[in-house]
Amino acid sequence: MDYRIDDARKVKMGYKPFPKDMQTQPLSWNALESSCVQSPAFGAWFELQVKSDKAKFNVHTGGNMGNLEDPVIYFGKVVETKSGRSLQEVCCVEHTGNDGIYSIESTGLSKDETYYVLVVARRTSAVLP
Questions:
Q1: Which residue, among 103, 104, 100, has the nearest Cα to 75 in the 3D structure?
Q2: Which of 57, 72, 101, 121 is most exposed, with the fewest beta carbons within 10 Å of its own?
Q3: Taking Cα atoms as reference points, which of 67, 42, 44, 69 lies closest to residue 57?
Q4: Cβ neighbour number for residue 113 with a 10 Å cutoff
Q5: Cα-Cα-Cα-Cα dihedral of 94, 76, 6, 14, to 10°?
Q6: Pairing state of beta strands 8-12 and 42-49?
Q7: Burial (0-12, 13-18, 19+ Cβ within 10 Å), 88
Q8: Are 124 and 42 a contacting pair, CB within 8 Å?
Q9: pTM higher than 0.85 for the full model?
């Protein structure tokens, strides 16, 4: 099934997020096949441009970065199949907490591939203002 991501902020490795970057929004597409994200209703998509075979993506919460609680970070890559393009999970991490820096890391990446990161609040009450 073709993935559909309406609004993904394009970011490079090492980007420093602004508070608005960590705001979750209603997702128009939530058909992820994931080990830790099941049909997310709210989240924030990022298209991650990698320049090497490894990547680290940070999520900041608390203080002026908002009240995102227990963030789940999904990292996937675009793959072409007979039925269309889809997202294949590279890794997924569930974090506990609401104040600090939470990360996801991966290796074995290719700068010729397209990667997306989805940040989801595990608690639905944690949608940012």
A1: 104
A2: 101
A3: 44
A4: 12
A5: 80
A6: parallel
A7: exposed
A8: yes
A9: no
Over the chain, what is the mean pLDDT?
Answer: 81
pLDDT, position 100: 83
Structure tokens at 83: 């039925």
Give 51: exposed, middle or buried? Use CB within 10 Å, 0-12, 13-18, 19+.
exposed
What are the b/e assignments for 61-70, b being 16+ CB within 10 Å? beeebbbbbb
Average pLDDT rounded to a whole number, residues 91-103: 88
Q: SS3 of 92, please?
A: strand
In angstroms, rounded to a whole number, what is the distance separating the alpha carbons of residues 32 and 50? 22
Q: Which domains does the chain have, with CATH numbers?
A: 8-126 (2.60.40)
Q: Is residue 37 a contact partner of residue 89, using CB atoms and an 8 Å limit?
A: no
At 95, give phi and psi (nearest 5°).
-110, 155
